[in-house]
Amino acid sequence: MTKSSYIDLPPTRRPLKIFAFDPMLGRAANQRITIEIANEPDLQIGPRGSRVEVIDYDGANKCYYTPVDLNAPGVLMRGGLDPNESVPCFHQQMVYAVAMKVIENFERALGRRISFRYNQKLRIFPHAFQGANAFYDPDSLALFFGYFQADKLNPGPNLPGQTVFTCLSHDIIAHEMTHALVDRLRKYFIEPSNRDVSAFHEGFSDIVAIFQHFSFPDILRGLIQETRSDLRSPTPLIELAREFGYATGQGRALRSAVDTSKTNGSGGGAGAHGKPDPRLYESVFEPHERGSILVSAVFEAFFNTYQKRIKDLIRIATGGTGQLPAGDLHPDLVNRIAAEASSTAQSILTMCIRAFEYLPPVDITFGDYLRALVTADFELSPADENGERAAMIEAFRERGIYPDNVTSLAEESLIWESAEGEGFPDFEKELIDQLVVGAQLLGRSSSRDPFMAPPSESEASQFTNQSYDSTDPAHDEYGIDLQKSVKEELARYARDNAVKLGLCPGRKITVRGFHPAFRVGADGQLLIEMVAQFTQRDDPKANQDFGGVPVRGGTTVIASAEGKVRYVISKPLYSKELSDEKKKHAQERIERQLSFVDECDRADPHIAWYGSTEEKEYRNRIARTMNFAAVHRGIRR
Amino acid sequence: MKNTAEHVIVRMYNVGFGDSFLLFIPTPEGTRKILFDCGVHFQSKKPRPIQEVAQQIVDDARDEDGVSRIDVIVVTHRHQDHVKGFESSAWNEVEVKEVWMPWTENPKDKMGREILEKQSGNAKTLHSTVQRLLAAAAASDEDQQKLRRMEGLAMNSLTNEKAMTMVHEGFAGKPRRVFLPFEKREENTFTRDFLPGVKIHAMGPSRDPEVIRDMDPPAEETYRHLAFALGGEAVESHMPFRSLWTLDEVGYLAAGGAEPLSEKDKEKLHTMSDEDSWGLAVALEKAVNGTSLLLMLQIGDAYLLFPGDAQWGTWNSAMMDKEWRRLLSKTTFYKIGHHGSHNATPKSFVSKLLPENFWAMACTGPTANWTDTIPLPNLMSDLRSHSPKVVRSDKDDDPAAEQHFTREQHGYFVDAKIPIYSDSDA
After folding, report:
1. How far apart, in whole angstroms, are the C-alpha atoms of residue A469 and residue A549?
2. How do residues A42-51 score in pLDDT, each as one tens digit?
3. 3-class SS at B222?
4. Of A275, A302, B69, B426, which one has the greatest count of Cβ atoms within 10 A?
5. For the residues of A11-40, what is the DSSP string, one character each?
6. Does residue B350 belong to the interface with chain A, where contact is any CB pair within 8 Å?
């Protein structure tokens, strides 16, 4: 390497400053931190990068705000603009930094690059509107953040009437960004077909937001000292969106990873530091509150693993007693504990995201998620050296979350049934070669993701005006040749093996995605897997009212690098050709979706006030809740 | 001796969109009378003024000695369409023994008071916001209708103070105020000396958290934010940054910004700050309905069910109770919940519990802003598929049903004669 090429080589990382939590907590100097994200060499003013672009248009005041140039020398020398509430350029920097951090976490866990549909950029509007709300909008592929004035009567530690920016809350940004990524990975998880679907979207987004806190070393060290290593204590570390919660007059953070013991007795998964309440999973219905059950389960698995991992450190530090003396902890001990906490958190977060490859394409339940977690982790580290998997199973069990159709909660029965020995033909060698070529292409930012089926015209516009087109939008549109051949080959495979895959042979099968995933196992081995998703759609009977939400079936197929089918995870539609067990499963899913519609109706105050049951608004009443603006409007309740 | 000729008469008054039912119960000691509600919605088309209906009820309740007596007045909940008629001074002469109300009305009940205060405070905020917007009159026709509908819901939930003063303090005969259900489950089946042969089952609203959730409207701040967002206090939207940071499109492009936003995108952003005002209005309406009493009167073999406008929480908690469930499955008369709306009659009650051939009455009528909404045609037809004896107060929409009832010649009321003893027992 010549001297000049060494100097000219763009740095791989870019440091940027953010509020660790939000401006309310950020008044203390040590809560303003620097995070590092991948340096995008072609980053434009905005900032506009290869995957996300920040557009600072204020819809309420109908104006733009000065866009930031993160490559300006003055900005670069400081390692990014300093945190400042009154400068919009800093806001742009912070949403960009946090959004990219979330993408990075997903890519690390999944072992592949993620791009959005059509290789479009996700647009981020940090000051889109006035209102205490922020949401991801799949239709315009954008995140919209609102700003509002803090409650005048009950502002908490904020000034009465002070402007609060949702785009300055790390948690809100991370939460919304996760919605966008989940939507990218599993498009149909936006369709509420059972109680858990929307709750999963919400809970998972909270998990990502909370676990990212643990990647801020200074914050973590400070709080470990403060709580004397008990990370369950109520600190900003495990709470979400404090400023937002106080500013909207709730007198507390928006949500927490542990017990929330609200007066109405709902939300959260555990009593005050105490026992989780399995009845909540039976009774809690609102998506954020139900999502909190998932969050508390994952957090408890984290906490138990973490405690196990620091036990030896504490024994060493206390001469074997394990009893910490009064007073401050030794800074070396704090450092070591912080390192353990941070690596445990990262490994739990990675585990949570990695599970995505093992999820069915439609109709998820928390039970499915547990099975996916266990399977994905088992594939990577069969021995469970750190006991994370066992801790996860236990935490779910204590909250009454049981998967359907498993005989026990032993690890062996939670792992998805193996497809080996079921007589599946291998995937064609040619297909796998195409995937590898595609993976190389994907490494370059300019190319589109050849593995996700692009949406058709009708699909792209289906959320416009909040109506939902009742015709299936998922028609094939192959796009580039590589993709076309891959898709045709896969579609043929699915048709040939439909019954075994739990697909209905008489119905159209849509290829929803095909990815390679590259990961390094605990033993240092490279693990390569192929993940294919197929979906189908049912025609509801005239007397069945799903409120406009389609009934879908689908199958995720996991194959090894040699093309051998390892797991088949299916949500079948009813078909007489299927096995009795699958037919029963299909029937149960329909009934569950119908009773879910009933539950929604009971809770919905609008229901009394529709014009008639023939009205379009009424027929699509559940589908119309499929936008995050509406769901998040409930966040103030 | 059972007299198979004996009937309870349930008289449903045609108040418009509202509720009012007077029961005449034959007993060995003479006819006893129970009134359920007397109100009308202010936006309802009114067949005649509610004061006239009130006066007629007072007159209908007159005994041979000329004194108007109603043994029990039941106020299921404090919505205007259930209490408006109590503003009339005609009630001053009526001798009443007891007034029954939901526990949320008990001034000594802390939680009840909190719930009421929150509900009426929110109604006040919402109402004044809507009033201000209506006065501004800049709204389009479509917005006007939306505002009128919101006004209707907000008005309905205001304190209705004048009527509620009568309910809490008025009537002749120094009536006792009773708040139901009682705290102890076993006390909720009870009798009264002055109602021989009548057993009362107070099935709801319980204090179950799920039931209380139904009564709990969104937080006060939400309504205050709405008032703010809809232009209550601020004249203009406020600027979050100093003007030196703001740019027009030309300036934005010159500063290196991305290509300009499309008109479609801008339109989307311009309308984004709209709060879900309608959502808040219906949520409040539902919360007050959630306080509704769910009562069953058992008279001989007749089981008369009056759910007011009870919501799912109350129904569910009653259906989960073994004894209440058994009683519900014997229902012979059903006052159709919430004027026949979609969410006040659970499907599982109709399909699993309600026995065939029941009597059912819907007290309802068109309102200025909802025509043909309530009662929902398919709820009525669903009920009619289980029994031919389903009638509505405002019109004769099913001649086959009509023969089972007696409609007053001016259409002022409809009587149902419910046999006290079933034929099989005769």
Report:
1. 10
2. 899 989 999 9
3. helix
4. A302
5. PSEEEEEEESS-HHHHTSGGGEEEEEEE--
6. no
Confidence of residue A3 (pLDDT cuts 50, 70, 90): low
Pick from B219, B238, B252: which is nearest to A637 by CB? B219
Per the structure block, which two tokens stand in for A461? 């516009």
**What sections of A162-286 are H helices per DSSP?**
170-185, 195-213, 217-227, 242-247, 279-283
B69 vs A436, which has greater pLDDT?
B69
Q: How far apart, in whole angstroms, are the C-alpha atoms of residue A546 and residue B196? A: 49
- A532-551 residues touching B, CB cutoff 8 A: none
Q: What is the pLDDT of residue A298?
A: 93
CA distances from A435 to A361, A439, A557, B325, B372 (A): 20, 6, 15, 60, 59
Q: What is the pLDDT of residue B228?
A: 65
Would you call B240 and A265 a contact, using CB atoms and an 8 Å cutoff? no
* Amino acid in position B303: Y
Contacts of B275 in chain A (CB under 8 A): 131
A624 is written with which tokens?
Answer: 């119309």
Residue type, B237: S
Neighbours of A43 (CB within 10 A): 17
Contact A283 B257 (CB under 8 A): no
* Strand, coil or helix: B362: strand
pLDDT band at A263 (very low <50, low <70, confident <90, very high): very low
ipTM above threshold 0.90: no
CB atoms within 10 A of CB B148: 15
pLDDT at A233 > cutoff 50: yes
Show the low-confidence residues of chain B (pLDDT under 70). 1-4, 137-140, 142, 221, 225, 228-237, 273-275, 369-376, 423-426
On chain B, the residues whose CB falls within 8 A of the CB of A87 are 241, 245
User: Would you call B312 and A63 a contact, using CB atoms and an 8 Å cutoff?
Assistant: no
Question: A419-423 long-range CB contacts below 8 Å, 24 or more apart?
Answer: A419/A557, A419/A565, A419/A566, A419/A567, A419/A568, A420/A564, A420/A565, A420/A566, A422/A500, A422/A565, A422/A568, A423/A500
Q: Is B81 on the interface with A (CB under 8 A)?
A: no
Cα gap A420→A565, rounded to integer Å: 7
- Whether the pLDDT of residue A178 is over 90: the answer is yes
- Model-level pTM? 0.84
Q: Number of A:B CB contacts under 8 A?
A: 176
Q: Is B379 part of the contact surface with chain A (CB cutoff 8 Å)?
A: no
pLDDT score of A489: 84
Q: Do B342 and A606 touch (CB under 8 A)?
A: no
Q: Are B88 and B53 in contact (CB under 8 A)?
A: no
**If DSSP codes are grouped into helix, strand and coil, which group holds residue B98?**
strand
According to the model, what pLDDT value does residue B138 have? Answer: 63
- A617: contact with B, CB 8 A cutoff: no
The answer to whether B132 and B234 are in contact (CB under 8 A) is: no
In this prediction, residue A148 carries a pLDDT of 83
Q: Rounded to 5 degrees, what angle do the CA atoms B147, B150, B151 make?
A: 85
A239-240 and A163-165 strand pairing: unpaired
**Residue A441, pLDDT above cutoff 70:** no
**Closest CA of chain A from B400, distance in Å:** 24
pLDDT above 90: residue A70? yes
Q: Which two tokens stand for residue B408?
A: 């007053």
Q: Which pLDDT tens digit goes with each residue over A545-603?
A: 888 899 999 999 999 888 899 999 999 999 999 999 999 999 999 999 998 998 888 88
Name the nearest CA neighbour of A138 among A119, A114, A122: A122
Residues of B in contact with A285 (CB under 8 A): none
**Strands A122-130 and A52-54, bridge-based pairing:** parallel
What is d(CA B234, CA B231) in angstroms, rounded to the nearest whole number? 6
